[in-house]
Amino acid sequence: MELAMRVVETYEIRSALINEMGLDDAEFTIESKEVLSALLRRVAGFHCPCLKRKLVRSVFESLSPIAAEHDSLRQKLYDTLDEMIEFGDLYESRVNNRFDYNDAEALIFILPPTFIQLPSNKILILGVIPDHTSCLPPDLQNDIHYQNTIRLLTIEPLDDEAPYLRELGFQELHLDTWLRSPRIRTFKEHIDRHRKHLNARGNPGMGIGLHVINPDSDVTYYPKRWIEPGDYSGLFVGKRELLYNQQAWCLVELNNGAIEKLIDFPLPTSPYPGRDGAWHLQCAIDAYNGNPQQYRVIDGDKGSQRILQLFSPVPSWTIRFLTTIAEPVELSGCLFAYRIDQMEVEAISTFLKDRLWMSDSEIQ
């Protein structure tokens, strides 16, 4: 029996690799986040716990001979890995070094298979099973939609896959726990909570270079909302200058432009970054003043798809939610935009209205 040999083209290797990861080589390239995240999960199942650079190096050395964009591949892998850690496929933890904790490097750990039921007919799949390309059985694998680094299981409206996933050993995580979002409050409750912190801890402080957001300004044009204190009075979200060209988000009470009380974000015991606290509070202030921040849903360019337009920055937990069911797009006339399915409009509108007190400026 003679052995047959043939020369394999580079594109054939790329296609075979993508298909082996359970993806469609007609839809994705080996440089796409969908493929890179699948490869990183696979390698993490073999190597973790390990250093971040080891995971990146393992995938980079495998792909570099066949990658079309060799120069940018390493940075794409680091960016993809950071996004996977952010969403919950992997976990990063600094392990104490008996010589010097500050010199210890963070290790990457795999997280167990987990699912999160979204407020639409989709389930977010997270986690890694060692030695397996996918943590799902074949009967569910075909229903997976890949979007950047996340995996979404699409289900029929009357189906309930949760019991089946639990039987398979998946852990269920509540959406609010995964989003790390604050509990739902009225805008007045949210403002009162911050005012108590300001009254208890606030002091005139240093207002060097202070600029505040004008609550009476046009909420659809964020850059023009920033003003100097002037002779304004009331409660404002602002930014002040620190040493070495740094800035701090702050909550400030003004009286004819003079600082009466000031406290920096994040508030004491808050788990959220300063910018998240500031943007969330500004939504409440705008709603309280009868000038709520707005979103707009317009017709998209692909069949039943729509475009969600946002005009102001939103907290990171809102971005996490939108990323699971929407695709970021570049669009003029707004601060940022997402392509969404018609079926997602109600869930997104409810989220923005309940948690950020927004109003829909127009639905076409």
Summarize the structure.
The protein is α+β, with helices and mostly antiparallel strands and 364 residues long. It has helices spanning 10-20, 33-47, 52-63, 70-87, 138-141, 162-167, 175-179, 187-201, 274-288, 316-325, 345-356, and strands at 50-51, 90-94, 106-110, 114-117, 122-126, 144-147, 150-154, 171-172, 211-213, 226-227, 234-241, 247-255, 258-264, 294-299, 305-310, 327-329, 336-341, 359-363.
List the helices and strands and how they pair.
Blueprint (H helix, E strand, L loop, with lengths): L9 H11 L12 H15 L2 E2 H12 L6 H18 L2 E5 L11 E5 L3 E4 L4 E5 L11 H4 L2 E4 L2 E5 L7 H6 L3 E2 L2 H5 L7 H15 L9 E3 L12 E2 L6 E8 L5 E9 L2 E7 L9 H15 L5 E6 L5 E6 L5 H10 L1 E3 L6 E6 L3 H12 L2 E5 L1
Parallel strand pairs: 4-8, 14-18
Antiparallel strand pairs: 1-3, 2-3, 4-5, 5-7, 6-7, 9-10, 9-11, 11-12, 12-13, 14-15, 15-17, 16-17
Helix pairs in contact: 2-3, 2-4, 3-4, 8-9
